[in-house]
Write a structure and sequence with these properties.
The complex is a heterodimer of chains A (172) and B (276).
Chain A lengths: L8 H8 L18 E7 L2 E6 L8 H15 L5 E5 L12 H10 L1 E2 L12 H5 L17 E5 L7 E6 L5 E5 L3
Chain B lengths: L15 H7 L4 H23 L8 H29 L5 H6 L19 H22 L5 H29 L3 H18 L7 H8 L10 H14 L23 H9 L1 H5 L6
Helix pairs in contact in B: 2-3, 2-8, 3-6, 5-6, 5-7, 5-9
The chains are: A alpha/beta (172), B mainly alpha (276).
Protein name (chain B): 1,2-phenylacetyl-CoA epoxidase, subunit C
Pfam families (chain B): PaaA_PaaC
GO cellular component, one term (chain B): cytosol
C-alpha cells in the first residue's frame, strides 16, 4: 500500500506511538520522549530521534523499527536522523509512560531528580537517598542493589517490605 | 565534583565547518584533539569491557559492561566527528579498527592492563575525575558539535564518577586486604595521571580558539576531586611527580597497547569491511 497524500506530523506521531521500545516493549518510542521532530523534506519523511544513552545498543534497532513501521504505513521515502542536542532527559517520559512502566514492574524516575542522579557521595555524607517506591507494593522502604541494571537506563533495587527485586528507571 | 561549574564561553559556539572556514590551519590540530578524546574513551572502554563475564559479582559485571558501553558510545561521537573534520572519507570505525598503535593518541593511563578489580576501579576513578572536569569545560566549547557531544556525555560521566569514587572510598576504607590493594593500585597508576593535564602545541592552538581547554587548566579541579576522595578513602597520595609516564597523546605508547589492538582489531583486520 502506498499512500496518496502526505500525512501530517500529528498522524505520523500517532503511528510512531505504535512502535514499541525494543527493551521495554510496554512503552512506545513516543512515550520515551526520544522522537524529537517529524517533518517533510521534499518527498522524504524525516524523523529526528535522540538516543537515551550514548552507547545504548537499542538505538540502531529503534531507528530500523521506525523506518520499517512508516514504510508499512505506506510512506515510500523515510529518513531517520539522530539528534544529540538537547540531550535526552527522563523528564521527557510522558505521564502515561510512567504509569505503564509501573504496571510493568519498573519504578519510573522520581520527579525532580533528573540531572541529580542521587549522588552516592551525598548519601555517604549522611544525606537522604532518593525514595524510590516499589512498583509492586508502593513501599518506599527500598534499597539500591546496583547502580546499573539490565539495560543502560535502569538501576537494580530491592523492596524491604515485599522483598521483591525490581528495576528503577534511573534519572538523567 | 560540582555539576554546576560553568565556564563563560570565549565566543558564541559555531559549527566546526564555520570555524575551519575562518581558520583552516586548525583542521589538523582539531583532528588530533578529537582523536585524543575518542582514543581515550575507546581504549578505556575496551579495557573495561574485558571484565564482561569475569566480574567479581554479577552486579559489578553488569556495571562495568554498562560503563564500557557509555565509553564506546562517546567514542563513536568523538571519532565520528574526527573523521568528518578530517574529510578523507574515513569513518569512526575506520579510525578505531584500521590504525596502528603509533597513530593512537590516548593517554597511557587507559592502556595499562586491568590488573585486579581494585586497580580497575582506581583507574576508572582517576580517569573519571579528569573526564568530568574536561566535559564541564567542553559544554562551553566554541565548536557547536563538541559542546553538544559533551553535554550528552557529561550526564553519563557524572554517574561514572559518583560510582567509581564511592567504590574507591568503600574499598580504600574497607578491610586490610582491600585497603592494601587500593593503595598498591594508586601507587602503580599515579605516575601515569599527570599526562592527562600536560599540554603541547596542539592543545595550545585549540585552547586559543576556545575549542578545547588547555589540559593544565583542568589540573586544579582534578586535584581537588582526587585528594578529597583519597583522603576519605584513607589512602595516601603517593609522593613524587605524577607526570613521568607520558607520550601516548603524541603516539608513543607502552607495549600494552599493541596487544590490546591485536584483539580489538582482529576481526576487521582479518575480514576488512565485515558487518553484523
Amino acid at each position: 500500500m502506498v499512500i496518496e497524500t502526505r500525512p501530517d506530523a500529528a498522524t505520523v506521531r500517532d503511528w510512531l506511538a505504535e512502535v514499541p521500545d525494543p527493551e521495554i516493549p510496554v512503552i512506545s518510542v513516543t512515550d520515551l520522549g526520544i522522537v524529537r521532530d517529524v517533518g517533510w523534506e521534499d518527498d522524504t519523511l524525516v524523523v529526528g530521534v535522540t538516543p537515551t544513552y550514548s552507547g545504548c545498543p537499542a538505538v540502531a534497532v529503534i531507528e530500523l523499527e521506525i523506518d520499517a513501521h512508516l514504510r508499512a504505513k505506506g510512506v515510500e521515502s523515510v529518513r531517520v536522523e539522530r539528534r544529540l542536542s538537547p540531550p535526552w532527559s527522563t523528564d521527557w517520559l510522558t505521564e502515561e509512560a510512567r504509569e505503564k512502566l509501573r504496571g510493568y514492574g519498573i519504578a519510573p524516575p522520581v520527579d525532580g531528580t533528573a540531572g541529580d542522579v542521587g549522588s552516592l557521595r551525598a548519601v555517604r555524607m549522611g544525606g537522604a537517598e532518593v525514595a524510590v517506591a516499589c512498583p509492586r507494593c508502593a513501599s518506599t522502604k527500598t534499597q539500591m542493589v546496583s547502580r546499573h541494571g539490565s539495560t543502560p537506563c535502569k538501576a537494580a533495587y530491592r523492596c524491604g517490605d515485599c522483598l521483591e527485586p525490581f528495576d528503577y528507571f534511573k534519572c538523567i | 565534583m560540582s555539576a554546576d561549574a560553568t565556564i563563560a564561553p570565549l565566543a558564541p559556539a559555531r559549527p566546526v565547518d564555520d570555524l575551519l572556514a575562518a581558520a583552516p590551519e586548525l583542521r589538523a590540530p582539531l583532528v588530533t584533539g578529537l582523536c585524543r578524546l575518542g582514543d581515550a574513551t575507546l581504549i578505556l572502554g575496551h579495557r573495561v569491557s574485558e571484565w564482561c563475564g569475569h566480574g567479581p559479582a554479577l552486579e559489578e559485571d553488569i556495571a562495568l559492561a554498562n560503563t564500557a558501553l557509555d565509553l564506546i558510545g562517546h567514542t563513536q561521537m568523538w571519532l565520528g566527528l574526527a573523521a568528518q573534520v578530517e574529510g578523507r572519507g574515513r569513518s569512526a570505525d575506520d579510525l578505531a579498527y584500521h590504525r596502528d598503535a603509533m597513530h593512537f593518541r590516548n593517554p597511557l593511563l587507559v592502556e595499562v592492563p586491568n590488573g585486579d578489580i581494585g586497580r580497575t576501579l582506581m583507574r576508572l576513578f582517576l580517569f573519571d575525575a579528569w573526564h568530568h572536569a574536561l566535559l564541564e569545560r567542553l559544554v562551553s566549547s566554541s565548536a557547536t558539535e563538541i559542546a553538544e557531544i559533551a553535554a550528552k556525555a557529561l550526564k553519563e560521566v557524572h554517574y561514572h564518577l559518583d560510582r567509581s569514587s564511592d567504590l574507591v572510598v568503600r574499598l580504600g576504607d574497607g578491610s586490610e586486604e582491600s585497603h592494601a590493594r587500593m593503595q598498591a593500585a594508586l601507587d602503580l597508576l599515579w605516575p601515569y595521571t599527570g599526562e592527562l593535564c600536560f599540554g603541547d602545541d596542539t592543545d595550545a592552538a585549540l585552547a586559543e580558539a576556545g575549542i578545547l581547554p588547555e589540559p593544565g587548566d583542568l589540573r586544579s579541579a582534578w586535584d581537588a576531586t582526587v585528594r578529597e576522595t583519597l583522603a576519605e578513602a584513607t589512602l595516601a597520595v603517593p609522593e613524587g611527580r605524577n607526570d613521568v609516564q607520558r607520550g601516548g597523546r603524541q603516539g608513543r605508547h607502552t607495549e600494552h597497547l599493541g596487544y590490546l589492538l591485536a584483539e580489538m582489531q582482529f576481526l576487521q583486520r582479518a575480514y576488512p569491511g565485515a558487518e553484523w
